[in-house]
Automatic annotation (TrEMBL):
Main localisation: cytoplasm
GO cellular-component term (any): phenylalanine-tRNA ligase complex
Organism superkingdom: Bacteria
Organism from which the protein derives: Enterococcus caccae ATCC BAA-1240
GO molecular function terms noted in the UniProt entry: ATP binding; catalytic activity, acting on a protein; magnesium ion binding; phenylalanine-tRNA ligase activity; transferase activity; tRNA binding
Protein name: Phenylalanine--tRNA ligase beta subunit
Residue span(s) of domain FDX-ACB: 714-807
Amino acid sequence: MLVSYKWLSEYLDLSKISAKELSDQMSLTGIEVEGIEVPEEGLKKIVVGEVKECIPHPNSDHLSICQVDIGEEELSQIVCGAPNVKTGIKVIVALPGSRITGNQKIKKGKMRGEVSNGMICSLQELGYSDSVIPKAYSEGIYYMPTEAVNGDDVFSYLDMDDHIIELSITPNRADALSMRGVAYEVGAIYRQTPEFNDAELNEDTSEQATDYISVEVEDEKDVPAYQIRVIKDVKIAESPLWLQTRLMNEGIRPINNVVDITNYILLLFGQPLHAFDYDKLASKTILVRRGKAGEEIVTLDGETRKVSEETIVITNGKVPVALAGVMGGADSEISEETTTVALESALFDSLSVRRTSKEFNLRSESSSRFEKGINRATIGEAGDVAAAMIAQLAGGTVVSGKVIGSEIALEEVVVSVSISRINDYLGTEMDQATVSEIFDTLGFAYTLAQETFIVTVPPRRWDITIEADLIEEVARIYGYDNLPSTLPKGETVAGSLTTGQLLVRKIKSLLEGCGASEAISYALTTEEKSRQFMMRESLTTSLQWPMSEDRSVLRMNLISGLLDDVAYNVARKNNNIALYEIGRVFYQDNDPKKDLPYEENHLGIVLSGNETVKDWQTKETPVDFYTIKGMLDVLFDSVGLGDKITYTATKEHQELHPGRTALIKLGDTIIGFIGQVHPTVAKEYEIPETYVAELNLQAIIDAENDALVYQQVSKFPAISRDIALLVDEAVTSQELVEIISKHAGKYLRSIHLFDVYQGDNIAEGKKSMAYSLTFVNAEATLVDEEINQSMEKVEKALVEHFDVTIR
C-alpha cells in the first residue's frame, strides 16, 4: 500500500510530524514501512513553460523548433521531437544545467544546426513508469494545466514534492489498505481523530434509480451486498491534475474522470467500485449469478475469456458484462460517448474472487481487497461519495435513490477484557485511565463494569474478534518500546528427550552407521506422487491455493520424495546413493467429523548403485534386496524387535517389483514394506535399479520393545548340524525357518542359510536350501543323542508341512 503524506495531511494535522518520523512510529506500532520515496529527489531546475510558437525543423522531418516562455523576459528556443508538441500548450521544461531521471544532465546545445536551450520533457523523463502515465501522453510530452504559472517549479503541480510511504500490509490488517484506514491508524498513534472532507451527495428527486434499472442477486452467499447508483448527463474528459497526480503517485494510470474517481474511492475507502456505461448494457436489468458452461466475455484488457460455473458474473440479464470483483467487460466500459453511468458498489465472496483471479491470471487492486476483506459498513457510503464526485467532476446528475439487489446486516462485535488480564499479558501496570484513553483514541466504544472493559468494535476493524486482539491493540498504541523487558522467572528444570525421541535418534545413528545419509524432502507434492507407495487407503489432502501444481497435495508416502532425490543425484553423475528420511505423512479418512488429516511418523530408505565400489583388489557389488533388508534387520535387532518381525512376499504394490517385494509385519500387524522399485516406475523417475523400504515409525515407537538381557557366554561347547532340503521353489525361507525354530527344541541358538541352488541335477520347480543349525546348552555338554532327536523332529516336521526331501 502506497500512502501519500500530503493526502494523509488533509485528514490529520501532521504539520509537526515529518514523513520519516511518521514511518518510524508506524513501524513501532505494528505496520511495517518498506521505505519512503520523494519523486522529486535527484531532479532540479525543471519548470513550467508555455509554447508560444512551434514550427517544423528545416533539417528534420520529426523535430520542431519551439519558442517557449519560461517566465523570463525573452522566449527560450527549444528543439523538441515529441509528436504532440504544438502552440499554446503548457509543458514541462528542463533548463540548461538541470537533471532529469537517471541523473542525466541537460546542457545547452544544437540539434541539426538549431540551438536548443534545454528540453521539453515527458513524464518518463521525470521518473514516472510507463504503466502509470495516461495513454494520451505515453508517446509524447505531458500538458500542464493552463493555470500553471510560467517559470514555476513543476514539482508542486505534479505532487512530486510529496513523500510516498510504502506500507507492508499483513493479511490481518486489510483495513490499512485504504487511506481512511491509515488515517485512523495514524490518528490513534498521535491521539487525533481524522476529519474527512468527502463530497456531499445531491440527488435529482425528479427521477428514481429504479426507473432506470433493476437488480437481482441469484445467491446472496456469493454476493452479500450489491447496489447500483445511476448518474446521468455526464461528460467524459480528463481528470483534473490533482486527481491524476494522486493516482499516478499511488501507482495507478489515469483513464478518464469517471474511471479515475472509482479508483480514487478504491484508495480512499478500500471499496472497489465499477462503472458501467448504462446505454451499452442494452438492458434495464442487472442479474448477478454464477457463470454457465460455454459463456464468454471480452474483458477490459481485450482478452476473450471462457466463464466457468464457479465464476460469479455480472450480467445484463442475458450475457456476462463483468467478472465480479476482478475486471469489467469491454462491451460496457466507460468511453468518450458515455452519458449515463451505472455505478456498482458491492461485496463478493472472497473465495470466489480468489478463484476467478487465479483462473484467469488477473490480479488487480480490486480483487486483492475483496480477497482480504473490506469494511462492510461503508459499501453504500463509498458509492455515494463516488456518485457525488462524478457529479462534480463530470458534470453529471445523480438520480435519486439506489437499486439494491442484496444488503448485508451488520452484526455488532463485542469483546471483553479486564485490566488485570491486559497487565498479566503485557507485564505492565496500566491503570483504568490509561486503557480508557487508548480505546478512546482507537475510536472503540466501550462500557466499564468494575475492571472489565466491554468493547464494541467498529466495523472498520473486522480483524478484532477475541480478547487477545484487544490486548494487542492496547500494546500497539501503548508502544511496544514501552513494554518492560524482564528475564524469565521460576524454577529451571533439566530437559530430557522422550522415549520416542531417543529411539528416533538411535535409528538415525544406526542407519548412518550402515552408510546412509539423511534427506529432507518437501511435504507437498503432486497428487500422482502422493498416491504412490501408499501403506493404507486414504483421501487426498489438497491445498486450496497452492503456489504450484508440483506442490499442491500433502504426501502420503516418503518414497516418492526420496526417488526425486535419487533422480537429482543420478542426473549429476552421483550413482551410488543411500538415503533415509524420517518425516510425517498425512492421511485423511472419509469422516465428516474429522476436518484435519491424520499425521503419521514414517521412516523411508532408498538404495541405488553399488554397495561396494570397485578398486584394485575388490569387485564392485551392486545393492540388492538383501542389502536393504540387512539394514532393517540391524535396526530391528538394535531396538529389541528382531524376534517379532517377519517378512511376507506380496504383489499388492503396483509401484514395486512383484517378485522382489515383501510386507514387513510386527507380530500380526503390517508396519511397512520393502522391495525393488518397479522398472516402469523407475523409468518415469529416470533412475536405475533402486530398492526402497518404508516403515510406520510410530508403530515401532509404540511397540513394547523387549529389554536387552545380557547372558554369560556358555562354558560348554556349541554343536552345529547342517541340513540340506529339496523343496518347491514357492516355499520361502521364512516359512522353513519358522518350522525349524518351532521343532528344534530349547537348545537351538541360531539358524543360518548358507546355500541356495537351482539348476543341474535339480528338478524343475524345485530348489535346494541348506541350513546350519547351532545348538548350545548353558548348563551341560550336549551329546549326539540330544542333537539327533532334535534333528529328527525338525526333519519330520519339514516333511509333513512342505513335503521336503532331505538330501
